[in-house]
Every structure is written in C-alpha cells, then in structure tokens.
Design goal:
There is one protein chain. With 538 residues, this protein is α/β, with parallel strands linked by helices. It is built from 17 helices and 23 strands. Strands 6-5-4-3-2-1-22-23 form an eight-stranded mixed sheet. It is globular. The relative contact order is 0.12.
Length: 538
C-alpha cells in the first residue's frame, strides 16, 4: 500500500493524498494550492495524479483547499464518483462555481493586460483559467452522499466510515479499512479537525484505534483563546472603529467562518456591545448562499445555535446582504461606521481586496483576522506586520488597527489535537502529520513522541510512503522538489546589468524633448517605489 502526498505536506494548502491499494488508486481530498505564485503553479501540474487512473475521491469537506482541484481533475480525465456528506454536497457546488468564476475573471484580466502591452509578457498556461464555470458545474453530478457513521464500500476490499469532524458544516474525518492479501490495515484521515465547544458545530466524534493516523497540524505549536476572550476582542474592534465613525473589515471564509461571526455578533448585540445603528454587511455572494445552506441543514448544527442561524433577520436586524457588485461598491463610499464581512478569508481574491484598498490606510478603521493566513497571502503579510501591501498594482499603507483573533479558528489547537490522539492511541500506531507548516509540525511531533511514545512522520510535498502493518512507514521522494531554488545571484546580476545600461543611456535622455524626459523620470520613480516595496518586505 502506498500514499502519495500531492498537497498539504509541510503546508496548509492543496490537501490531496493519493492512495494505492487493492489494485486501484483513489484520493482523499483534491484541494487547490493557495499562496505565492510558485505554490499556485502546482494547480496546473497534476500529471502526478494520473487523473484517468483514479477510481474515486473521498472528500472530507467543502473548503476550497480540500475540494478546489476536482474540476481540473475531471477535466484531465477523472471519471469516478466523489463521496461526501449531504451538507458538503450542497456546499461544494457553490464553492467550485465561485472558484471558477474568480479564475475566469483573473485570466481575462491577465489577457487584457498582455494585450495592452502589445502581446508582450509571454502567452502561457496561466493566461487560461485553471478550469471554467462549466467544468465546475459538472462536479455535482459526480457527488454521492453518505451519512455519518454509515460504513460503505467504494470498491471491494475498501470500507469507509465518515465521522463528524466538527470543523464546518458537513465536515468529516475518514476511517478507512483496507483488506489486502488477508491483512487488514486501518487508516484514519482527520481532514480538518474542529475544536470541542466551538460555536455552531458539534464536538469532533471519538475515533476508533487505527494503525496509521494522518492528522492535520495547522495549530500544532499553539493553543487558541477561549470564547469569552474572543468575544471581548471582537467587541474591542467594534468599539474602536465605532467611536471613530469608521469601518470594521473582517476577511472571512465564506463557509463556516462567516456564519460563526454572525452568531458572535448576535451574542455581542445581546450583551449590548454591538450598537444598533452599526449596520452589518455580508459582502460575498458565496457566503450569502452558504448561509442559506446552513439554514437548510440546521439539523447538522449544534442545537443551541440552529435557531439563531435560521432567524438572522430577527436576531440581527441590522444585517444586510449585498447581492450584486453595485451594492458592494457602494460600501466604499458609505459614510459612518459599519461591519463588513467579506471573502476571501486570506485576502488573496474576491471583494475583500477592494475593501482593504479603501480602508486599510484609514487610522480609524479596523481589520479583524478570524482565521488562518497562509504563507505568501496578503492576509499573512498584514498579520506579520507589513507597513503596506500590494493591491491592484498599488501599494496600500496599513494604518488601520489590526486584530488577530485566534479563538475563532475552526481548527483544533495543540492541546486539543493531543487530547484527541490520546483518546484513540494504541501501541504501535503510526502518526503522520499533514496540513501544517514545518515549525508547527516539529513542535507537535516532538510532543506526541514524548507523551505517547508513538513514532511520528512528517512527509514533504510529492513524497511517497509505503505502509506495511506493524512497521514504520518507508518514505522516499518520487518527483521534483517542492520548492524550486531561487537564483538570487542571477536575478541581482540581471538587475545590475539593466541599471548599468540605464546609466550609460542617460546622456541620450538629456537630448530628448522635455516632455519625454519627464515621462522617463516618472517611470524611474515608479521603479524606485517598487524597490522600496521589496526592501520593506525583507
């Protein structure tokens, strides 16, 4: 039996584990890679999947870093079913169509930019979208729903049980039992594991002991604040901007986090900490539609919050939904305080980028981060203290007050991960850490080894693992390295050479008409600004 790590290996994006067992190949999740340009380029490079040979996909939940490559996989030859829970089936269709729309818009923007340059810049694969809206709309017909706790066999020799992971609506961890040559191997894929006591979701179910545990480690090096502290921080952000008659900008994932924020705002209103004259705008078509799905599947939510989510018009009377682009744009000129919840949660796409452009430079505004910010994303740069960020080819100063509220996370913290492992551990169980950055994984791995005496493996991107019951996994790299070397010397030589050419030609510039000299001067000033922006990042 083999496991290929095609994503979420020493990173928190692009979850995809390709399993070879019982003479077939299947995937657990098929997520989109999100981050810098080198990471996102992996989305176009899926020959390692061999899509036509994949029999089926087991989808843990709807988030795009777990589902976002499904249309691309199907476009390249995958023709099998995708198994998931009923709420996930309802949400993933929305997620994928929204993702396709964003990619089509970005591809069109790149094509126009090339055309404005007279075709310069090199036509390449990234000019085309990763997949189209039509590609995304074909995925729902592939979905086969399964309920929590009901075993099923997607093929002979493989039995799967979905259990409630408590992460978002419909999320699951997977118990997989594989029988080969008369031997039974039990695997568990955690997907994204939720926190006990979180708002809206049930606590994660108690798993059965397994031979191999593939567990997420997003917060393997730290714990979250409690609910009371989280609410107080959100109340502080609201009070700060309300007193300055300015806006609170909340980048939030459309599915799960937006709905949780709405519930928290209801709690603050009940406590008298949300002014009645402070409107709340959900500015994300996807989040609006997802909220309707939450209402439809309220039976899957914790009962204490289901009624509130079903009657937001009563419990949050100042709540408004912006249904079109014109209503969204109007928020940029809206006078007075307001709370704006918009996607994407990491600020790398969607309407949130416009709201940051119009508000990040305002000292009276607040930017409230309520979820994990991936490496290379604008959100991560702001959280890490950047003085400015690049938005729409413009450097935007960060003068707004920044709040990072970890207590909203839908992922288990360090102590909760350890407690969950402790409840299922058995002698000889092998632990494989996935979906986490290396620092968090090293910290969590050391604690697991010290406390439980279990062996821990941390695979890297494109690594392959061979599993044999009772033995430690054997890992080896089967393809190119995950992080291509950046040749800084070459880049510096190229830049220096161009600067030398500029110096040599400046004498000719003095012979040009004054208008042309001013134009060249302005372009050099723009280059200087770019250099300053890069230096500020180092």
């Amino acid at each position: 039996m083999k496991i290929h790590f095609l994503g979420a290996a020493q990173t928190v994006t692009g979850s995809c584990y390709l399993v070879e067992a019982c003479g077939i190949r299947f995937c657990v999740d098929c997520g989109m890679h999100q981050g810098n340009s080198a990471i996102e380029a992996r989305n176009f490079d899926i020959q390692n999947h061999r899509p036509a040979d994949i029999r089926f996909v087991l989808l843990t939940h709807a988030h795009i870093d777990h589902s976002g490559l499904l249309p691309r996989l199907a476009r390249e030859g995958f023709g099998g079913p995708v198994y998931c829970t009923p709420p996930t089936a309802a949400l993933v269709g929305l997620m994928l169509e929204d993702s396709a729309h964003i990619q089509e818009m970005e591809a069109e923007w790149k094509r126009k930019k090339q055309n404005r340059r007279g075709g310069q810049g090199g036509a390449g694969r990234n000019v085309e979208p990763l997949y189209t809206t039509e590609d995304a709309r074909r995925i729902p017909e592939r979905l086969k729903t399964v309920e929590y706790g009901q075993p099923f066999q997607p093929c002979p020799g493989i039995e799967v049980v979905y259990q409630d992971a408590g992460h978002i609506l419909g999320s699951a961890f997977l118990e997989v039992r594989i029988t080969e040559d008369g031997k039974i191997t039990r695997l568990l894929f955690s997907g994204d594991l939720g926190r006990p006591g979180t708002l809206l979701m049930h606590d994660p179910a108690v798993p059965s002991p397994v031979d191999y545990l593939f567990i997420e480690s997003t917060y393997g090096d730290r714990n979250h604040k409690n609910e009371a502290d989280t609410l107080e921080e959100l109340a502080e952000a609201i009070a700060y901007s309300y007193s300055r008659r300015d806006k609170v900008i909340i980048p939030a994932f459309a599915i799960g986090r937006t709905q949780e924020i709405l519930y928290c705002l209801y709690l603050l209103r009940r406590k008298g900490k949300l002014p009645d004259d402070m409107p709340i705008f959900v500015d994300s078509p996807l989040a609006i539609r997802a909220t309707e799905v939450f209402r439809d599947f309220a039976a899957y939510l914790d009962t204490r919050e289901a009624d509130v989510m079903g009657r937001t018009d009563v419990y949050l009377p100042q709540l408004r939904f912006t249904l079109n682009a014109a209503e969204s744009q109007a928020l940029n000129t809206l006078a007075g305080p307001a709370v704006i919840i918009s996607a994407s949660g990491m600020c790398n796409a969607g309407r949130i980028k416009h709201h940051l452009r119009h508000n990040a430079w305002r000292p009276g505004a607040s930017i409230v981060f309520v979820g994990y910010q991936g490496v290379g994303t604008p959100g991560r740069k702001i959280v890490d203290g950047a003085s400015s960020i690049r938005l729409f080819n413009e450097d935007v100063a960060i003068k707004a007050r920044v709040f990072t509220i970890g207590g909203f996370s839908a992922h288990a913290g360090q102590s909760q991960l350890l407690e969950w492992i402790d409840g299922m551990r058995r002698p000889g169980m092998q632990v494989v850490l996935v979906h986490g950055e290396e620092k968090a994984q090293r910290t969590l791995g050391r604690l697991i080894e010290e406390r439980f005496g279990l062996q821990v493996s941390i695979p890297s991107y494109l690594e392959e693992m061979t599993l044999e019951p009772g033995a430690a996994p054997h890992m080896f790299v089967t393809a190119r390295p995950s992080q291509p070397h950046v040749n800084w010397s070459f880049l510096l030589e190229e830049t220096t050479a161009k600067l030398d050419q500029l110096k040599r030609r400046l004498s000719d510039a003095e012979k040009l008409p004054w208008e042309e000299q001013v134009d060249i001067r302005d372009r050099i000033l723009e280059l200087n600004k770019e250099f300053l922006s890069v230096l500020a990042q180092l």
